[in-house]
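quick one, four chains, predict together pls
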Amino acid sequence: MTPTIERGPEGGFAVGPIDGLLNLARKHSLWYLLFGTACCAIELMQTGGPRTDTDRFGMVFRSTPRQADVLVLAGTISYKMASRIRLLYDQMAEPKYVIAMGSCANTGGLFQESYAVVKGGDLFLPVDVYIPGCPPRPESLCEGLMLIQQKIEREPWLKKAWGKYKSDKPDPMPTEGCEPLR
Amino acid sequence: MGSFSEYLANIGRSIVTLGDGLAVTFSYLLRKPFTIQYPDRTEKPVVAMLPERSRGILEIDINVCTGCSICAKQCPIDCIHIEVVKDEETKQRVLKRFDIDVAKCMFCGLCVEACPVSGLRHTHEFEGSMSDVHRLMLSFVDKPQPVAKPAKKDEPAPETKPVGSIVRKLLADWWKPANPTSGGPR
Amino acid sequence: MTEVLQSTPDREELILNMGPHHPSTHGVLRFIVHTDGEIMRKAVPDVGYLHRGLEKIAELQTYPGYMPFTDRINYLEVMFTNMAYATAVEKLLGTEVPPRAEVLRVLVCELNRIASHQITLGCITMDLGAFTPFVHLLRERERINDLMEALCGNRLTFNYMRIGGVSQDVPDEWLKQLEAFLDHFEPVIDEFDSLISYNEILIKRMGEVAVICAEDAVGFGLVGPNLRASGVDWDVRRDLPYGAYPQMDFQVPVGMGEKGTVGDCFDRFIIRVEEMRQSCKILRQCLANLPEGDIKAKVPKMPRPPKGEVYSCVEGARGELGVYLISDGTPKPYRLKWRTGSFAGLSIIEHISRGLMIADLVAVIATLDVIAPEMDR
Amino acid sequence: MTTASKEICKKLADKLGVVLDFREEAGDPWALIPAERWKQACLTARDEPELSFNFLRSLCGVDRPDDGVIEVVAHLFSYQHRHALVIHTNTDRSASRLESVSSVWPAAIWHERETFDLFGVDFTGNPDLRRILLPEDWVGHPLLKDYEEPDSYRGIPTTRPGYEKKKFGPQLKKPAPKKPAPKVEKKPEGGEAPKGTAGSAEQK
């Protein structure tokens, strides 16, 4: 994180380091919403469980969307549920992230021929990270959450909030310049 | 008075049974921890710790594949796409496309059971998180190449690449910033 | 989430919405609760938030191709759904399953029953406010997941059974691992008992709450542990034996009214703890007499069962799990219907919720052990 | 199994005073009950001491477009005598209507709701007949063989862009001409239960 000096309305502000500090804090308190729709919900529970203890990364589940940063689309989404998920997403505070966990949330998965299933979470929500698997292993979900951490790390959101961020460049992708985990 | 003593007895029983439970919980302070420190603080990578039969992301060794398309027919949800054409000059069957849609795959293993040459297999790889769902369509054929001949009875089976190496390379390629298809708007 | 609060002044009734996203509801499941103060007048379940049309998909798939889809009927009792479907097709085809495969099926089913009850018991305690036992049970479940992964290749959606047998034989080391697990797990059940089962606070929350009498239980079609908790001594494994169960020796726990009345929430809780013990007993018997031989009967690759229909049921973790299958002689089923325990289990809630406290509703849902995909399919 | 079912069926037929059509194919045998005697047969099956079917295992519909009927199938079981019975009845496909058995077994309330939801069978006398699995504004009954999926539902496309989709219904049945006739008649019946909104009408 290179320190940058930004000109504020009243004088100089060292926004870069503050951004870095804030991102560091945000990165290590990534709270996900305890919300699962289908099979992946069990693996979501196991991820919070003792084996892949996500508390190690400061990832704690919250029961209310108002306190959550990450919405994990864990499982098949039916049309009846889609509008409720949208409602949950709208209740979350900015900045918020969405993870599509498993094949059903990615593309509808094995329910391509079903009349009642939404073919992919990205048809009605902006999805940040897609995790393959049916259901993905807890470690897989952990990796997805870590990708969100990497994305947070390079987010200039304070600059953006200050109105000083040049918005002609698209938001950095989580994979851009990131290192693979292994 | 009876109800009052019952009330006190209730409180007493609650404290005693709660103590029993807490004793169990505290005993876990002295036991071996159960957590696996994914991703880095493990003796060996998690992928190597998985059991032999673990079904991870699919991969195909195209040097072995005979282009018979049995796997694509077996797949209940059509997530394997194979294209085999006949080359007019060499009269050989050429494998043009072998894509596996990992974003749709349900990891059931029916295709692997059906593969007659064991070219298609489940790896132990599970780390394939992507920010773009289209990248989860894994293409195993870079340029068209002739399909392999099925091995004769007395011939030794053709050598296959180590399980997992193909898909690991394929997934790692996406991480390179030089890749023109990486990045860009969602 | 939508019509959250809505009061009707003339009747002093408050309509309260609960779910579909609520940490205590099991999967996505919604209740419209009519309350008078703290007392519920009735709680009307609203299901279908996980309706996936699995019965329609069956009509589009071939018989072997539908097997992975049965995994998703109920993700907590995958082996039972696999087995119910496999036995239904076998009955139509008239296939004899080899003895080794039968015992292997029983073995994985009972292992799955333990895993399922672990989640159930954990959820009951979590819903009633005790989080620690849930984590303990998740830890033990992780061991079963490892065993299952070593056997079938996946942690949750096993896809282990095939029409006419099972897909893979047990690895050499696996039986020893299973024995080690049983040696480890049997004391853990006792530990769980002292951790939470007889905790006075839990007993007060569950004893005498939501009593279901035997007549209601039968009339509403409750099955499995819920039915047995009401005092009806019925178990498909023992009374309509299938597979290798006639060779097994086990008891069927029935509700005794240990901390209140027969058929209350505590009975439904403690029966599941006891069933885990019995499953361990069956597993040991399977280990002791595992016959040698084939694991799969000869079945054509694309079976075409003769025209006809069959109902086949197994005793799942949530009771009788039935498949009604109609064949019209083609490689695809003509109609397939799942009869599941949760669907019937939830239909009774409107009836028994009258006069309960709002806080007891979660205890009722949790002890009836309803799972969203099984209700909605 | 077969002989036992035959005897049970005979007993039931004696009590009802009609001759039941008893069919044996591969698998389980079953008896066909005339639709107008449906509830009476269920009551008899439950109350007759020799039968005493106190457990309704399942109740479901089966669509038979070739015969122009929707079958309703009930699986009965008796805990006392440990015997089972499968009974079928036929309802007219264009206007399927059947007397509810929810007063016989309370479990039937939800089973009938499900059958109504997926097949559109109207159970007269059911206290709570509305959609159970699908949303209230859903159009059509998806388990009918001629059900056709709309292109989108509430603005969400039903097919993922770039993915091909196997078609429902019409592809399933070989003879094509039979379908249009019942479907046109079906429409007003299916439209009345879910309040047909303007948006859903457009999709159709």
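Chain B touches chain A at residues 34-39, 45-47, 57, 76-78, 101-107, 126-133, 136, 171-172, 174-175, 177, 182-186 (CB under 8 Å).
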